Amino acid sequence: MEDYKYLFKIVLIGDAGVGKTCLVRRFTQGLFPPGQAATIGVDFMIKTVEIDGERVKLQIWDTAGQEKFRSITQSYYRAANALILVYDVCSQATFDSLPQWISDIESFAKHKVLAYLVGNKIDQINSREVPSYIGKQWADRFEMRFLETSAKDAENVDILFYDIAMELTKDAREKDKLESDCTGFNISPNTKTINRCTACFKF
Amino acid sequence: MGSYIGMGQNDKQSRWGAYNGLGQNDKQSKWGHTLEWDKMISCQDGAIHWPGQNDKQSKWGHTLEWDKMISSCCGCCAALKPRYKRLVDNIFPVNPEDGLVKNNMDKLTFYALSAPEKLDRIGQYLAQRLSRDVQRHRYGMVVIAMDALDQLLVSCHDYSLNLFVESFLKMVQKLLECDDVELQILATSSFIKFANIEEVTPSYHRRYDFFISKFSSMCHSNNSDETCKARIRTAGLKGLQGVVRKTVSDDLQVNIWEAIHMDKIVPSLLYNMHDQGFVQVDLDNHRNEEAPAFVAETVFRDLVCRASFGNIKSVLKPVLVHIDNHQLWCQATLQFVVKCFKIIMFSVQQQYAYIVIQVLMTHLDSHVRSSPDIKSSIVDVLFECVLIAAGGSIGPSVLDVFNNLVRHLRISLDNKSTDVDKRTMEKKFEEAIISTIGEFANNLPDYQKIEIMMFIMAKFPQFTSEEEFGGKMDAQLQTMLLKTLLKVATKYKTVSMANAFPPEFLHPLLRMSLLDDPGMRIIVQQILHTLIDRNDNTPKFKHVVITKDISKLGLKLQKSARQDSLFMKKNGSEFYGCLLENMQMDSNKVDNFEALYCTMALICVEMGCTEILLELIRFALELQNIAINKLSLPLTHKCAIHALTSGFLNLLAQLAEVKSLATYVSGVIEIRRQEASHLLPDVAFNRANKPSSYPEVETLKDTWLFQQSQIAEILTELGHDVSRLSKPFTYRVFSSLLGGIDAEDSTLEKDEEERRRKEILQTFQTAPFEEIVARSESKSNHFHNKLNEILEMVSKHPDSPGSLRNTNKTTVPVFDIQFPELYVY
């Protein structure tokens, strides 16, 4: 019945208007919504991708950047397997508020969460304010992965999410191996039954 | 297959039993092949060969692929499927628009009921079909599958639901993950149906995290279509309610009260309650019951009333954080916050109401440095909450609550802003605190109110050792504290004076009535008024007037209790002394005199003037003496005191119903009216007075004054013992007690000396011989007593028995003998 092997929760955070929703939309629906309204609270999208022949379901929680929703969005950090911290390469201000976001991650997210720093809107070459190398330095300092994207041109968007999915799958597999050495109880019994059931017809 | 077959074997026995029983019914033919099916299972072979069966499954529900797969797999017909699968397949119509096949659904239900152990597999199969339909966007079928799931849920018994619920929830989640709005709403409504089922059997392995997250996210839907937005939000809200319902009563479930969940649920509810887009909802209109704002409110109430002692804080914290984050403390949205807290107060279990107040107080603490309008909003909300919580509002830490509020008052005064606008806001905050303190006090039993007043008095800067505050700050703080006191005092319902004025409260209060600031003195008098006045007579004594017939005033009189007159006998002198001191204050204004008059009149009315008549008259005469003898007083003050005395005596004589006295008083008043109207209230208390209203030369004729001797005569005729009338008042005690008027002491002392000299002079000039004798006698008695006291002390000394004998003879040698002995120490 389960149509996926792993389920990962990804949460996007960052200042208002850096293009979090557009990134998600681009990835899940393949479109760039012009004039996207500000997100309220939290938005939710789902996308199943295939990693090494296995279906991996990504639950993507797209949070509002506005300050006033901070408390509700923070409550979503905890469950996240991966966090994508987005800033706008055309706005120094959104880059400057990164330390605040980092400290939020430290205080609300799981200890070893996969964190990605993403500079969005690289399609606007002329109004760029934050050079690539500075973002990279920054990401290195906080042991985050780094990527620059453009939701508009679909640049690096898929790479971003696939990379996360891949990384998380790798981790999950290692964990599975560890666990199966001990108990072998990584998938719920129900799932097994069904697999066999379908298998019985294939027989 | 392992687990599947194992299960089949385990269940076989019971299934047999069930089917045998059924077999006797007329359904025999229908159920007959179950037997064969079970045999088939026991073959334990993956490839099941089922004997020919004339079933119609293939026509009904199967998709092309499915059929293809089956045929490719086993080259056999669809009939090979187990019975439950066929039953499930049968419920689906060929055409999704036809809806659920009712007949077949009944069959499925019946099967599920009679074979509950199959239920989980039915659920799995349904779920499997459903997820396939979702993927293929065959939403008609999805709706039907959900309908079937719902029906099975409702009709099946609780104990068999456990595993079925697993697949049910998976389905709901699956639908919630879809982009399609309709499916999300459908899933939510199914979930709500599920939430309404009361399960008795505990279940260990359910997780609602996703549901909470998703429903919260739905609550914040920003769909471009307004109606659609409202529907999604409503669905989200109801879904949250369902989760709360499901988890709150079940200890095995996730603890819904944990911050991680509450931080999602509470803001979602509040956001919908105040979201601008939905504000114009007419709550009386029943058509709007589905409006998010309305639903959110209902869910919020539901949540709050489920919260227990340990949990209520986890609801309140996100509420306050939300209000902070959305900056709702400002004036424009304060109404919403108040409404919110009213909801909380009305919904929360009564015994926990005080926690709400406690939390608000703590929140106020955390906003100590915030702008005054935020603080005053918090206090306003606090005030409303206290109103609702009534008796239980304070909780166990009464003094703590008051201490906190007074502290905030003080902090606000200490950090006074110079900006005018800001200062007005601060003042508003201060006023809000005061009325909140009053409201708190209102809910306390009376004896505690007195305690609270004493507590507040102890906060007066001059009574504490802290001297670093500037004088001006002191004054403001004192005024605020006095206002607070007044507020508390107005809430106090006096029954007996002795209870209202325990000595440890009365003394400091009277001391406070002698503060420097005339405005503050008025407040103290007002406190006295409200505490003394039991019959709401205060308004009638607001102005000093001479009423010919006091029955016109419409006073409410009550026979005073004996204990009140006893109280006055004990404490009267303190009252009088304090009032006399007050009269002599240079800074007095018209209002002060009026307030003092009111206090006097109230004492008359409340304490039983017949019993203490003599004392009151003595007091009135002393008052007159002050006006005559205290030269340093300005003329206006003297006139005011005279006028006040006349008004007071007029009232007193009529209240005590002493006709002869009343006649005498009105006689004097009449003379004054003709010859010296400036000694009557009409002139003396006329606020429009100019210096020219008063006579240029200060003269006093005896006929204008109330003569002690004549009053004594009248009273003697009535059988009173007038000997005390002539005794001087010993109210001096007060000024020595008072630290606050140190500054005035020098002038006061001068005045005092002068007054005393004049007094003595006058006494010896005018008083009858007996009185002088009595006076000097009392004086010498006093001296004698003092002497005796000293001697007694000395006599207690074991080493001085000899000296004792000597002292009995003469006084002078005593010291001669004693000095050397004293030096021994």
UniProtKB/TrEMBL annotation, chain A:
It is found in: Cytoplasmic vesicle, Autophagosome membrane; Golgi apparatus, cis-Golgi network; Golgi apparatus, trans-Golgi network membrane; Lysosome. GO terms for molecular function: G protein activity; GTP binding; metal ion binding. PROSITE patterns: RAB (PS51419), RAS (PS51421). Gene3D superfamilies: P-loop containing nucleotide triphosphate hydrolases. One of its GO terms (cellular component) is lysosome. The keyword Zinc-finger does not apply. Keywords: Cytoplasm, Cytoplasmic vesicle, Golgi apparatus, GTP-binding, Hydrolase, Lipoprotein, Lysosome, Magnesium, Membrane, Metal-binding, Methylation, Nucleotide-binding, Prenylation. Its EC number is 3.6.5.2. It catalyses: GTP + H2O = GDP + phosphate + H(+). Its cofactor is Mg(2+). InterPro entries: P-loop_NTPase, Small_GTP-bd, Small_GTPase. The keyword Signal does not apply. Belongs to the small GTPase superfamily. Rab family. NCBIfam families: small_GTP. The small GTPases Rab are key regulators of intracellular membrane trafficking, from the formation of transport vesicles to their fusion with membranes. Rabs cycle between an inactive GDP-bound form and an active GTP-bound form that is able to recruit to membranes different sets of downstream effectors directly responsible for vesicle formation, movement, tethering and fusion. RAB30 is required for maintaining the structural integrity of the Golgi apparatus, possibly by mediating interactions with cytoplasmic scaffolding proteins. This is Ras-related protein Rab-30.
From TrEMBL, chain B:
InterPro entries: ARM-type_fold (IPR016024), EFR3-like_ARM (IPR049152), EFR3_Homologs (IPR051851). It comes from the Eukaryota. It comes from Sinanodonta woodiana. Belongs to the EFR3 family. This is Uncharacterized protein.
